[in-house]
Write a structure and sequence with these properties.
homodimer, 417 residues, alpha/beta, Molybdenum Cofactor Biosythetic Enzyme, Chain A, Molybdopterin biosynthesis moea protein, domain 2, Molybdopterin biosynthesis moeA protein, domain 3, 6-stranded mixed beta sheet, elongated
């Protein structure tokens, strides 16, 4: 077996492989500026601070009456405070009245607080006793039922941090601050090179010994879900020079190269040898202690991460989630520290025992269902070479490398896919 | 207050509101046929059965030697089975040799099993003793290390069910079966009508009493994340006839209508009165026992669900997730039964006490962080009128209507947003 840059030819641990990959000198994609309404789901490429207070003026948070809080102190249902009704605030306009001592000004939710007022009495706690008089039955504290100027967002405060994936509420906050254009990272281009003498495109009728391409369709979707743009390079025979040429073109034109090879030792060795042969390139590891997915090859060629992926469909998905996804995200500008707090894993009760050989991370496909208000995870057993087990599964459960399995009844974390 | 179709003017429970909405006669969008590579994330509009066995022929799951299993029975490292090496299987081609009694045929992972063979001995368990002889050190059972014809997917089996959202592995399975075009539902059109005399577009510099539009930007993103197409109708003043005309146009041209109104009682009553005034239309409920989000109005006009949404940003998000999202998904053809097993909620440990008034569902915004390998949920307190609390939050925790709160230290379900 070909040795990697560091002379290793043994499988590395999952943590070590990820560590190697994330310590590569990976450049972020350049930024571009777009209207905020085109930035949903995109990665913000600079910190955003607020250009102004939000709201700019103090607003009522309730339908009611703007008052001086002190005028209501000590009032109750039996001893209401009597206030003079001094007009009303119109929505969307500056009030043309003020709230002096003993005054109340009718105000709708969102209305601008009139000068002099520092609180709003809710409609429910007021009785109108005449055209120009109200009885307040409950005292309010200064600031009560009011959104003060700058209470939502203060001028010059950080609103959003570089590296977040913009969600609907983030875009809404930008719009509310009058920020109508925003800088985002361009999406990473990810080339997908399918190899294998036996692989034919899906529109073909495969001859004996041939099978249709499955993995590049799985990979293209995984790349899109990760915020990348898949570029399918096509299906290439297991011929050294043909494949070398394809990898060279991919390294030159894209940000990450995925070689979706066969699982045979021959193909794998050729992929590793090819990566080794590239100018300014080499392999980082051959094989990781993960099942399925052990044959994964990691490489780095002229600043571009190159992955030689295993051939079994389930191994493709596991390898992608664990090792390719973080690399694509990092190049795409995602702050992986922030990202870590937005997990894609749910908790469920395991309904069958699963066993595992220690010394490697084991990924078990599971299907989820609800029973008695509880989420249950049922292992979907089957060879990792089967696409149908991935289709029947809702996610994966990881058994850590030190464990020998997980007994039924335990709560497990399921990464949804 | 205007009464709804059933004479109610009280808030209904969250369960009841959802029940009312999902029992409306909602039609699915029509289907269209697209190439599979354009169907990622789309909703499948018919069941898919397999046109053929996958794989079509029995394949090796390992690099090794195709043999008759019975020839290896009883062998061991000390007493190996001696087999005659009878050529090799080439990748992507039908074998030109057979495996007779006492024969072994070299085969790569994915290679087609030669006639006569019923198992594959792994490379690791074999020693080659001469050009045409191997020693097998471990017996294999019939079928071992082989993916049998039809083992992945059997001809005429159901592969995918109508109403699922197509994932990368689902598209991959279709490609593998040679299914290159697939029927999906068209995306529901969702109109967003912003009302409020105080609302100005984000590019404006708001005058006194005015604020920029926030909610329609939040809603547009939520609609997209749900598989719908947002159609922004614009910002309208709180004038009965102007708004009535906009709602009429929206009902005629889209599948769901969202009226993003102010939170004031006046605006709300007008929205309800408008829905009531429509030909063949009416309100279904005014108000739900949910906080934030109580002022939600549900209506149904000429077969189109119409929502009068509350004005506070957090209330918009809660109302959307609970009531609008299921309606958009149902119209978009999503099978909500299947969907339920793909939850968007994670478990986390609550790090502060939260209290709640019984009699309504309470939604508390939380931010998530990891500590000691455990996910922690910290409440983000703040008025529901603030967009910044939504921005700082990673998700929401629901306190059921019978509970008075949740003590710190409990595990809670967090719906990520």
């Amino acid at each position: 077996m070909v040795k990697d840059m560091l002379g290793r030819n043994e499988a590395v641990s999952a943590d070590r492989a990820l560590d190697i990959l994330l310590n590569l000198p990976l450049n972020n994609k350049p930024s571009l500026e777009v209207p905020v309404e085109e930035a949903y789901g995109r990665v913000l490429s600079c910190d955003i601070t607020s250009p102004e207070n939000m709201p700019v003026f103090s607003r009522s948070a309730m339908d009611g009456f703007a008052v001086r809080a002190s005028d209501t102190f000590g009032c109750s249902e039996s001893v209401p405070a009597y206030l003079r009704l001094n007009g009303y605030v119109k929505m969307g306009e500056a009030p043309d009245v003020t709230a002096g001592p003993g005054d109340a000004v009718s105000i709708p939710t969102g209305g601008m607080l009139p000068e002099g007022a520092d609180a709003v009495v809710m409609l429910e706690n007021v009785q109108q006793t005449g055209d120009d008089m109200i009885e307040v039955m409950r005292p309010v504290a200064p600031g009560e039922n009011v959104i003060a100027a700058g209470e939502d967002i203060r001028e010059r405060d950080y609103v959003l941090r570089r590296g977040i994936v913009l969600r609907p509420q983030d875009i809404a906050a930008l719009a509310g601050l009058g920020i109508t254009r925003v800088k985002i990272y361009k999406k990473p281009l990810v080339s997908i090179i399918s190899t294998g003498d036996e692989i034919v495109p899906p529109q073909s009728h495969p001859g004996f010994g041939q099978v249709r391409d499955i993995n590049s369709f799985n990979l293209a979707g995984l790349v899109m879900n990760t915020g990348g743009i898949p570029e399918k390079f096509g299906i290439f025979p297991d011929e050294y020079n043909v494949l070398r040429d394809a990898i060279c073109r991919a390294v030159e034109s894209t940000d990450v190269v995925l070689i979706s090879g066969g699982s045979s030792v021959g193909t794998r060795d050729m992929t590793a040898a090819l990566i080794e042969s590239m100018q300014k390139g080499g392999t980082l590891f051959h094989g990781v202690a993960v099942k399925p997915g052990k044959p994964l090859i990691g490489g780095f060629v002229r600043g571009v991460p190159v992955f030689g992926l295993p051939g079994h469909p389930a191994a493709v998905t596991v390898s992608f989630h664990n090792f390719v996804e973080p690399v694509i995200k990092k190049i795409g500008g995602v702050d992986l520290q922030i990202e870590r707090n937005r997990p894609a894993a749910v908790s469920a009760r395991l309904v069958k025992n699963i066993s595992s050989a220690p010394g490697r991370e084991d990924y078990i496909r599971v299907s989820l269902y609800e029973e008695g208000g509880e989420l249950c995870a049922e292992p979907v057993f089957g060879k990792s070479g089967l696409i149908s087990t991935l289709v029947r599964a809702d996610g994966m459960v990881m058994i850590p490398s030190h464990a020998q399995g997980i007994p039924r009844g335990e709560m497990v974390k399921v990464r949804i896919f």
